[in-house]
């Protein structure tokens, strides 16, 4: 991973991180906040409020745009603590870069984003929240990415054998309408279309598939994450959420809830990949499968390491190579075994002290 200091959109002392053809820009003037994500020589994939470029030291929470860390569940007071002060940047021994915010005076929370190279053209984004307050809190780390308008979010629904109990849910916020034309419900995916004149709306899924994506023009921005099926998640069990209004779309993933005693911390990791894809309308499950080159799961019923899955992985790699420039998209929607990378052992409800 290459690193250099730059000025970006009026913010001085930004850190540019490059891994292959994928490039991130992190400001140290506010945050922690990632303000740029670029595939090759393309435009910024992240939305930024043009009126706030280069600004800092706001007295109230300010929606600059880009990617941020919050702690869930959302609260009208604690979630909106100002994050406009300088962050501390440090190079880590294992090749990553850390961006740590000052302690929030109201909550006692310290937020940190760590960025690591992950293979080629990918990054691992670690979201850490540490309790430096005086009492226990229950919270989950929450990664929120604001993306440029005009695209479509892809939210995978749970897939599994037939059973007697439900295994998937779609959660709506009070201001969301289930019949909103921006929502497209398939058997395998829920799509959320970002439109210029859309009123605010929000949706969440209890997805255990371990990924979500946003397609805008011919670019795919893909997030992978670990899902712990034995743990409780915020917002009626939502691990993936999308908020959108006229100017942007937020693609969000959440970690499980944990009890944090003073001094405890919890980490939620996302794996980011950007890839060029063929530009086709996304209106149903088949469109998504075609665009991302997803290989259908077999129905052999055997273990993950059986020969059937070896053939599946070979087919997946062939499909990804055939699709225009999606070669390093290990998140080509779990076709390359993304779900296998998720740990099947859930973390303890109580975080370990550091």
Which percent range describes the beta-strand content? 35-45%
Q: Distance between the terminal alpha carbons, to the nearest Å?
A: 28 Å
Overall domain count: 1
Radius of gyration: 20 Å
Please tell me the overall pLDDT: 87
- Sequence of secondary-structure elements: EEEEEEEEEEEEEEEEEHEEEEHHH
CATH class: Mainly Beta
Structural class: mainly beta
In terms of quaternary structure, what is this? single chain
* Helix content bin: under 10%
CATH topology annotation? Beta-galactosidase, Chain A, domain 5
Count all strands and give the number: 21
Uncertain parts: 298-354
Largest sheet geometry: 11 strands, antiparallel
Task: Describe the structure in your own words.
The structure is a single chain. This protein has 4 helices and 21 strands. With 354 residues, the chain is mostly beta strands. It has a single domain (2-341), classed as Beta-galactosidase, Chain A, domain 5 (Distorted Sandwich), CATH 2.70.98. Strands 1, 2, 3, 4, 5, 10, 12, 15, 18, 19 and 20 form an 11-stranded antiparallel sheet that branches. Strands 6-7-8-9-21-17-16-11-14-13 form a 10-stranded antiparallel sheet, with no helix packed on it. The chain starts with a strand and ends in a 13-residue tail after the last helix. The model is unreliable at 298-354 (pLDDT under 50).
């Amino acid at each position: 991973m290459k690193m250099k200091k730059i000025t970006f959109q009026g913010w001085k002392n930004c850190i540019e991180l490059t891994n292959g053809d994928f490039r991130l820009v992190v400001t140290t003037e506010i945050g922690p906040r990632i303000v740029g994500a670029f595939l090759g020589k393309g435009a910024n994939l992240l939305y930024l409020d043009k009126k706030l470029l280069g600004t800092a030291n706001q007295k109230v929470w300010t929606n600059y745009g880009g990617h941020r860390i919050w702690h869930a569940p959302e609260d009208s007071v604690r979630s909106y603590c100002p994050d406009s002060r300088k962050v501390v940047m440090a190079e880590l021994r294992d090749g990553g870069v850390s961006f740590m915010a000052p302690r929030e005076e109201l909550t006692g929370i310290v937020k940190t984003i760590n960025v690591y190279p992950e293979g080629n053209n990918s990054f691992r984004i670690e979201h850490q929240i540490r309790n430096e307050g005086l009492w226990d809190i229950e919270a989950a780390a929450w990664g929120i990415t604001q993306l440029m308008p005009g695209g479509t979010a892809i939210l995978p629904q749970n897939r599994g054998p037939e059973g007697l109990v439900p295994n998937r849910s779609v959660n709506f916020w009070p201001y969301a309408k289930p019949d909103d034309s921006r929502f497209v419900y398939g058997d395998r995916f829920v799509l959320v279309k970002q439109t210029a004149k859309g009123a605010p709306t929000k949706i969440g899924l209890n997805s255990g598939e371990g990924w979500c994506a946003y397609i805008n023009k011919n670019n795919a921005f893909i997030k992978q994450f670990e899902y712990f099926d034995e743990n409780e998640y915020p917002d009626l069990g939502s691990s993936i959420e999308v908020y959108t209004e006229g100017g942007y779309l937020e693609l969000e993933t959440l970690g499980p809830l944990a009890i944090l005693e003073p001094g405890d911390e919890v980490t939620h990791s996302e794996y980011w990949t950007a890839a060029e894809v063929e530009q086709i309308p996304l209106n149903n499950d088949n469109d998504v499968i075609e665009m991302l080159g997803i290989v259908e799961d077999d129905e052999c019923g055997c273990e993950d390491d059986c020969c059937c899955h070896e053939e599946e992985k070979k087919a997946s790699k062939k499909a990804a190579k055939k699709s225009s420039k999606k070669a390093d998209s290990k998140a080509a929607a779990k076709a390359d075994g993304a779900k296998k990378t998720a740990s099947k052992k859930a973390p303890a409800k109580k975080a370990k002290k550091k």
